[in-house]
Amino acid sequence: MRVTRITRTALCGLALAGSAVGACAAAAPAPLPPAQLADMLARAAPGADRKVLQLAAKAMTCALRRPELGIDPTRLSVIDYSRPSTEQRMWVFDLTRQKLLFEEWVAHGRNSGGNQTEHFSNRDGSFMSSLGAFTAKETYMGGNGYSLRLEGLEPGFNDKARDRAIVIHGAPYVNPTMARLQGRLGRSLGCPAVRLTVAKPLINSLRDGAMVFAYYPDTDWLARSQLLGPDCGGRAG
């Protein structure tokens, strides 16, 4: 796994964009600009699309200016639904440990498309994936085993995620070998399901506050997302 170093000053800048944390409070550098955060992410995950990472960095920087959202400034996951399910399209970054933790396959909802994800919904019963930024919340044991609840941060696009039981969980149908044979991964009921062998450590790396940013070039979401809008949706920072 490629490990990319992230300077303490830069990390503190990211933390202070949301709140003063630990030793970073004493350093008090200027908040880290989204462009610099995006550069760090791109160095850690060279296989990811830089434009997607730039949007994720922008959304995270905006969310950190809104402490009520409960985002942990040291952890971030990015899902790129514009990629086919047969490709690795989920990345988990641990900024405190200065490394990329996971580069993984992730399933989408059965009504969101075949190998390519094309349709998204915020509606219960749609069996589609949702776009936008989420806060990773608590874990629990359910019908799909160890699972991680997601709370949608984008009104109209994913804010019904908790009611829909959109969670990260492991699933046997997230099998890259079978995907190569059948032309796609198996599909979920809307959850971003991952391989069973990585589910527990991946979930534990995100639980209790990490941002999960799910991307697709949907023009409506890109135009209306408060976290991607000018001046962070009109909020002073």
Unreliable spans: 1-31
- DSSP summary: helix tally: 8
Total strands: 7
- How much is the average pLDDT? 88
Main beta sheet: strand number and arrangement? 7 strands, mixed
Write down the Rg.
17 Å
**Helical fraction:** 25-40%
Query: Shape, please?
Result: globular
Written as H for each helix and E for each strand, in order along the chain, the element string is: HHHHEEEEEEHHEHH
Largest sheet, spatial ordering of strands: 3-2-1-7-4-5-6
Percent of residues in β-strands: 15-25%
| Structural class computed from helices and strand pairing | alpha+beta
Head-to-tail CA distance between termini? 36 Å
Describe it for me?
This protein is an alpha+beta fold and 237 residues long. 29% of the residues lie in helices and 19% in strands. The chain has helices at residues 8-18, 24-27, 34-44, 50-64, 176-182, 196-206, 219-224, 231-234; strands at residues 75-80, 90-94, 99-104, 132-142, 145-152, 167-169, 211-215. A 7-stranded mixed β-sheet has the order 3-2-1-7-4-5-6. The protein is globular and about 45 Å long. The termini are far apart.
